[in-house]
Amino acid sequence: MKNKPKIIILTGPTGVGKTNLSLSLAQKFNAEIVNADSMQIYRYLDIGTAKPTPAERAIIPHHLIDIRNPDEDYDAAQFRNDADRVIKNIISQGKHPLIVGGTMLYLKVLTQGIFPSPPVDETLRQRLKQLAEEKGREWLHQYLTQIDPEAAHKIHPTDIVRLIRAIEVYELTGKPISWHQRQHGFQESPYDYLKICLHLPRETLYKRINQRVEFMFKQGLVTEVENLLKMGYTPDLKPLQAIGYRHVIAYLKGKWNIEKAKEVTKRDTRRYAKRQLAWWRQDKEVLWFEPQEKEAIEQIIKQWLNK
Q: pTM, whole model, 2 decimals?
Protein backbone atom coordinates (compact mmCIF):
# COMPACT_ATOMS: atom_id res chain seq x y z
CA MET A 1 0.00 0.00 0.00
CA LYS A 2 3.04 2.27 0.35
CA ASN A 3 2.79 5.52 -1.65
CA LYS A 4 -0.65 4.63 -2.96
CA PRO A 5 -3.41 7.27 -2.71
CA LYS A 6 -5.37 7.01 0.53
CA ILE A 7 -9.15 6.69 0.52
CA ILE A 8 -11.56 6.28 3.43
CA ILE A 9 -14.51 3.96 2.87
CA LEU A 10 -17.65 4.24 4.98
CA THR A 11 -20.14 1.49 4.30
CA GLY A 12 -22.81 -0.53 6.04
CA PRO A 13 -26.36 -1.77 5.51
CA THR A 14 -29.15 0.44 4.29
CA GLY A 15 -30.68 2.57 7.03
CA VAL A 16 -27.76 2.28 9.45
CA GLY A 17 -26.86 5.99 9.44
CA LYS A 18 -24.05 6.43 6.90
CA THR A 19 -25.18 9.84 5.63
CA ASN A 20 -25.17 11.68 8.97
CA LEU A 21 -21.82 10.25 10.01
CA SER A 22 -20.27 10.90 6.60
CA LEU A 23 -21.06 14.62 6.81
CA SER A 24 -19.44 14.85 10.23
CA LEU A 25 -16.34 12.90 9.15
CA ALA A 26 -15.95 14.90 5.95
CA GLN A 27 -15.96 18.15 7.92
CA LYS A 28 -13.52 16.76 10.49
CA PHE A 29 -10.98 15.46 7.97
CA ASN A 30 -11.25 17.98 5.11
CA ALA A 31 -12.83 15.39 2.84
CA GLU A 32 -15.20 15.30 -0.11
CA ILE A 33 -17.77 12.54 -0.46
CA VAL A 34 -17.82 10.09 -3.35
CA ASN A 35 -21.11 8.23 -3.69
CA ALA A 36 -20.95 4.42 -3.90
CA ASP A 37 -24.69 3.74 -4.00
CA SER A 38 -25.76 2.35 -7.36
CA MET A 39 -29.22 3.95 -7.24
CA GLN A 40 -28.18 7.44 -6.13
CA ILE A 41 -26.36 7.93 -9.42
CA TYR A 42 -29.77 8.34 -11.11
CA ARG A 43 -31.55 11.67 -11.47
CA TYR A 44 -35.15 12.04 -10.21
CA LEU A 45 -34.82 9.09 -7.80
CA ASP A 46 -34.44 11.01 -4.56
CA ILE A 47 -36.84 9.81 -1.88
CA GLY A 48 -36.66 6.07 -2.53
CA THR A 49 -32.86 6.09 -2.62
CA ALA A 50 -32.52 8.18 0.57
CA LYS A 51 -30.29 10.51 -1.43
CA PRO A 52 -28.52 13.24 0.56
CA THR A 53 -30.67 16.37 0.50
CA PRO A 54 -29.60 19.56 -1.31
CA ALA A 55 -28.93 21.10 2.12
CA GLU A 56 -26.65 18.20 3.08
CA ARG A 57 -24.86 18.36 -0.26
CA ALA A 58 -24.32 22.09 0.27
CA ILE A 59 -22.36 21.36 3.45
CA ILE A 60 -19.86 19.01 1.78
CA PRO A 61 -19.22 18.47 -1.96
CA HIS A 62 -20.72 15.16 -3.12
CA HIS A 63 -19.65 13.38 -6.30
CA LEU A 64 -21.28 10.74 -8.54
CA ILE A 65 -24.84 11.65 -7.56
CA ASP A 66 -27.38 12.49 -10.31
CA ILE A 67 -25.00 11.62 -13.14
CA ARG A 68 -27.34 9.44 -15.23
CA ASN A 69 -30.96 9.49 -16.35
CA PRO A 70 -33.01 6.45 -15.29
CA ASP A 71 -32.96 4.98 -18.81
CA GLU A 72 -29.17 5.21 -19.22
CA ASP A 73 -26.93 2.21 -18.62
CA TYR A 74 -24.39 2.33 -15.82
CA ASP A 75 -22.30 -0.49 -14.40
CA ALA A 76 -19.47 -1.25 -12.00
CA ALA A 77 -16.78 -0.70 -14.65
CA GLN A 78 -18.11 2.79 -15.38
CA PHE A 79 -18.29 3.50 -11.68
CA ARG A 80 -14.66 2.45 -11.27
CA ASN A 81 -13.55 4.82 -14.05
CA ASP A 82 -15.63 7.72 -12.74
CA ALA A 83 -14.56 7.17 -9.13
CA ASP A 84 -10.87 6.98 -10.11
CA ARG A 85 -11.17 10.33 -11.90
CA VAL A 86 -13.01 12.01 -9.02
CA ILE A 87 -10.63 10.62 -6.38
CA LYS A 88 -7.62 11.88 -8.31
CA ASN A 89 -9.17 15.34 -8.51
CA ILE A 90 -10.03 15.44 -4.79
CA ILE A 91 -6.49 14.43 -3.82
CA SER A 92 -5.02 17.04 -6.19
CA GLN A 93 -6.83 19.68 -4.11
CA GLY A 94 -5.17 18.45 -0.94
CA LYS A 95 -8.37 16.85 0.37
CA HIS A 96 -9.28 13.31 1.38
CA PRO A 97 -11.75 11.18 -0.60
CA LEU A 98 -14.48 9.69 1.59
CA ILE A 99 -16.28 6.89 -0.26
CA VAL A 100 -19.81 6.42 1.12
CA GLY A 101 -22.34 3.79 0.10
CA GLY A 102 -23.54 0.25 0.42
CA THR A 103 -23.30 -1.17 -3.09
CA MET A 104 -20.96 -4.09 -2.46
CA LEU A 105 -19.82 -4.62 -6.06
CA TYR A 106 -18.92 -0.95 -6.49
CA LEU A 107 -16.68 -1.04 -3.45
CA LYS A 108 -15.12 -4.31 -4.56
CA VAL A 109 -14.14 -3.10 -8.02
CA LEU A 110 -12.90 0.21 -6.61
CA THR A 111 -10.50 -1.44 -4.18
CA GLN A 112 -9.62 -4.60 -6.08
CA GLY A 113 -10.15 -3.87 -9.74
CA ILE A 114 -12.32 -5.52 -12.34
CA PHE A 115 -11.49 -8.16 -14.90
CA PRO A 116 -10.88 -6.95 -18.49
CA SER A 117 -14.22 -7.79 -20.08
CA PRO A 118 -15.09 -7.85 -23.78
CA PRO A 119 -16.60 -4.68 -25.24
CA VAL A 120 -20.36 -4.40 -25.52
CA ASP A 121 -21.87 -6.08 -28.57
CA GLU A 122 -24.96 -3.96 -29.30
CA THR A 123 -26.50 -6.51 -31.67
CA LEU A 124 -26.20 -9.29 -29.08
CA ARG A 125 -27.40 -6.99 -26.29
CA GLN A 126 -30.51 -6.00 -28.25
CA ARG A 127 -31.26 -9.67 -28.98
CA LEU A 128 -31.03 -10.51 -25.27
CA LYS A 129 -33.25 -7.56 -24.36
CA GLN A 130 -35.78 -8.77 -26.92
CA LEU A 131 -35.69 -12.25 -25.40
CA ALA A 132 -36.28 -10.73 -21.97
CA GLU A 133 -39.33 -8.90 -23.27
CA GLU A 134 -40.71 -11.94 -25.08
CA LYS A 135 -39.95 -14.69 -22.56
CA GLY A 136 -39.44 -12.76 -19.34
CA ARG A 137 -36.51 -12.13 -17.00
CA GLU A 138 -36.98 -15.50 -15.34
CA TRP A 139 -36.22 -17.19 -18.65
CA LEU A 140 -32.94 -15.24 -18.90
CA HIS A 141 -32.08 -16.17 -15.32
CA GLN A 142 -32.76 -19.84 -16.06
CA TYR A 143 -30.53 -19.67 -19.12
CA LEU A 144 -27.75 -18.10 -17.05
CA THR A 145 -28.22 -20.86 -14.46
CA GLN A 146 -27.46 -23.41 -17.19
CA ILE A 147 -24.31 -21.69 -18.50
CA ASP A 148 -23.02 -20.13 -15.27
CA PRO A 149 -24.77 -21.32 -12.08
CA GLU A 150 -22.27 -19.46 -9.90
CA ALA A 151 -23.14 -16.10 -11.47
CA ALA A 152 -26.87 -16.92 -11.53
CA HIS A 153 -26.75 -17.55 -7.78
CA LYS A 154 -25.36 -14.04 -7.21
CA ILE A 155 -27.59 -12.14 -9.65
CA HIS A 156 -31.20 -11.46 -8.76
CA PRO A 157 -33.71 -12.51 -11.45
CA THR A 158 -34.98 -8.92 -11.72
CA ASP A 159 -31.50 -7.43 -12.34
CA ILE A 160 -31.80 -7.38 -16.11
CA VAL A 161 -28.60 -5.37 -16.66
CA ARG A 162 -26.34 -7.83 -14.83
CA LEU A 163 -28.17 -10.83 -16.30
CA ILE A 164 -27.63 -9.60 -19.84
CA ARG A 165 -23.99 -8.70 -19.22
CA ALA A 166 -23.22 -12.13 -17.72
CA ILE A 167 -24.80 -13.90 -20.69
CA GLU A 168 -23.11 -11.49 -23.09
CA VAL A 169 -19.65 -12.27 -21.66
CA TYR A 170 -20.31 -15.99 -22.04
CA GLU A 171 -21.56 -15.61 -25.62
CA LEU A 172 -18.59 -13.45 -26.62
CA THR A 173 -15.80 -15.37 -24.89
CA GLY A 174 -17.13 -18.90 -24.53
CA LYS A 175 -16.38 -18.80 -20.81
CA PRO A 176 -18.65 -17.85 -17.87
CA ILE A 177 -18.25 -14.44 -16.27
CA SER A 178 -17.54 -16.21 -12.95
CA TRP A 179 -14.52 -17.89 -14.59
CA HIS A 180 -13.16 -14.52 -15.72
CA GLN A 181 -13.64 -13.13 -12.23
CA ARG A 182 -11.74 -16.01 -10.64
CA GLN A 183 -8.89 -15.66 -13.13
CA HIS A 184 -8.59 -11.98 -12.38
CA GLY A 185 -8.83 -12.64 -8.66
CA PHE A 186 -9.95 -9.07 -7.92
CA GLN A 187 -6.45 -8.43 -6.59
CA GLU A 188 -5.46 -5.15 -8.18
CA SER A 189 -5.38 -2.54 -5.40
CA PRO A 190 -4.65 0.96 -6.67
CA TYR A 191 -5.44 2.55 -3.30
CA ASP A 192 -4.40 2.42 0.31
CA TYR A 193 -7.80 2.21 1.92
CA LEU A 194 -9.43 2.13 5.33
CA LYS A 195 -12.74 0.27 5.30
CA ILE A 196 -15.22 1.13 8.05
CA CYS A 197 -18.52 -0.72 8.23
CA LEU A 198 -21.36 0.49 10.44
CA HIS A 199 -23.66 -1.96 12.16
CA LEU A 200 -26.41 -2.03 14.75
CA PRO A 201 -28.16 -4.77 16.72
CA ARG A 202 -30.59 -6.47 14.34
CA GLU A 203 -33.75 -5.36 16.13
CA THR A 204 -32.54 -1.76 16.19
CA LEU A 205 -31.58 -1.79 12.52
CA TYR A 206 -34.86 -3.37 11.44
CA LYS A 207 -36.82 -0.80 13.47
CA ARG A 208 -34.90 2.02 11.76
CA ILE A 209 -35.56 0.48 8.34
CA ASN A 210 -39.29 0.22 9.05
CA GLN A 211 -39.39 3.83 10.24
CA ARG A 212 -37.45 5.02 7.21
CA VAL A 213 -39.83 3.31 4.79
CA GLU A 214 -42.79 4.96 6.53
CA PHE A 215 -41.00 8.31 6.27
CA MET A 216 -40.31 7.81 2.53
CA PHE A 217 -44.00 7.26 1.85
CA LYS A 218 -44.88 10.34 3.90
CA GLN A 219 -42.29 12.36 1.99
CA GLY A 220 -44.02 11.53 -1.28
CA LEU A 221 -42.48 8.35 -2.71
CA VAL A 222 -45.70 7.55 -4.57
CA THR A 223 -45.70 10.99 -6.22
CA GLU A 224 -42.03 10.58 -7.12
CA VAL A 225 -42.78 7.31 -8.93
CA GLU A 226 -45.86 8.78 -10.63
CA ASN A 227 -43.73 11.66 -11.92
CA LEU A 228 -41.10 9.27 -13.28
CA LEU A 229 -43.77 7.34 -15.16
CA LYS A 230 -45.29 10.58 -16.49
CA MET A 231 -41.84 11.54 -17.79
CA GLY A 232 -41.97 8.42 -19.94
CA TYR A 233 -39.69 6.14 -17.94
CA THR A 234 -40.99 2.57 -18.10
CA PRO A 235 -41.44 0.27 -15.08
CA ASP A 236 -39.00 -2.31 -16.46
CA LEU A 237 -35.99 0.01 -16.22
CA LYS A 238 -33.36 -1.11 -13.72
CA PRO A 239 -33.79 1.88 -11.35
CA LEU A 240 -37.57 1.40 -11.25
CA GLN A 241 -37.07 -2.24 -10.32
CA ALA A 242 -35.21 -1.16 -7.18
CA ILE A 243 -36.65 -1.69 -3.70
CA GLY A 244 -39.45 0.77 -3.04
CA TYR A 245 -39.93 1.76 -6.66
CA ARG A 246 -41.17 -1.61 -7.89
CA HIS A 247 -43.41 -1.86 -4.83
CA VAL A 248 -45.01 1.52 -5.51
CA ILE A 249 -45.51 0.51 -9.15
CA ALA A 250 -47.35 -2.61 -7.95
CA TYR A 251 -49.59 -0.31 -5.89
CA LEU A 252 -50.20 2.05 -8.82
CA LYS A 253 -51.13 -0.91 -11.03
CA GLY A 254 -53.71 -1.98 -8.45
CA LYS A 255 -51.87 -5.16 -7.52
CA TRP A 256 -51.52 -4.12 -3.86
CA ASN A 257 -53.05 -1.55 -1.55
CA ILE A 258 -50.77 1.08 -0.04
CA GLU A 259 -50.28 -0.79 3.24
CA LYS A 260 -49.19 -3.94 1.40
CA ALA A 261 -46.74 -1.87 -0.66
CA LYS A 262 -45.25 -0.45 2.54
CA GLU A 263 -45.00 -3.81 4.29
CA VAL A 264 -43.32 -5.57 1.35
CA THR A 265 -40.92 -2.63 0.93
CA LYS A 266 -39.97 -2.97 4.60
CA ARG A 267 -39.52 -6.73 4.27
CA ASP A 268 -37.38 -6.52 1.15
CA THR A 269 -35.28 -3.71 2.61
CA ARG A 270 -34.61 -5.80 5.73
CA ARG A 271 -33.63 -8.75 3.53
CA TYR A 272 -31.28 -6.55 1.51
CA ALA A 273 -29.65 -5.27 4.71
CA LYS A 274 -29.16 -8.87 5.80
CA ARG A 275 -27.42 -9.71 2.50
CA GLN A 276 -25.20 -6.65 2.82
CA LEU A 277 -24.09 -7.64 6.31
CA ALA A 278 -23.43 -11.22 5.21
CA TRP A 279 -21.19 -9.88 2.43
CA TRP A 280 -19.11 -7.70 4.76
CA ARG A 281 -18.76 -10.37 7.41
CA GLN A 282 -16.67 -12.27 4.87
CA ASP A 283 -14.37 -9.27 4.42
CA LYS A 284 -11.44 -9.48 6.84
CA GLU A 285 -10.40 -5.87 6.05
CA VAL A 286 -13.54 -4.35 7.54
CA LEU A 287 -13.41 -2.46 10.84
CA TRP A 288 -16.79 -2.65 12.59
CA PHE A 289 -18.34 0.23 14.51
CA GLU A 290 -21.78 1.33 15.63
CA PRO A 291 -22.79 4.77 14.28
CA GLN A 292 -22.70 6.38 17.73
CA GLU A 293 -19.01 5.42 18.16
CA LYS A 294 -18.02 8.59 16.34
CA GLU A 295 -15.03 9.43 18.52
CA ALA A 296 -13.53 5.95 18.11
CA ILE A 297 -14.06 6.13 14.34
CA GLU A 298 -12.42 9.55 14.20
CA GLN A 299 -9.46 8.26 16.21
CA ILE A 300 -8.88 5.26 13.93
CA ILE A 301 -9.07 7.48 10.83
CA LYS A 302 -6.65 9.98 12.34
CA GLN A 303 -4.15 7.26 13.20
CA TRP A 304 -4.46 5.71 9.73
CA LEU A 305 -4.02 9.03 7.91
CA ASN A 306 -0.91 9.84 9.98
CA LYS A 307 0.76 6.43 9.74
A: 0.81
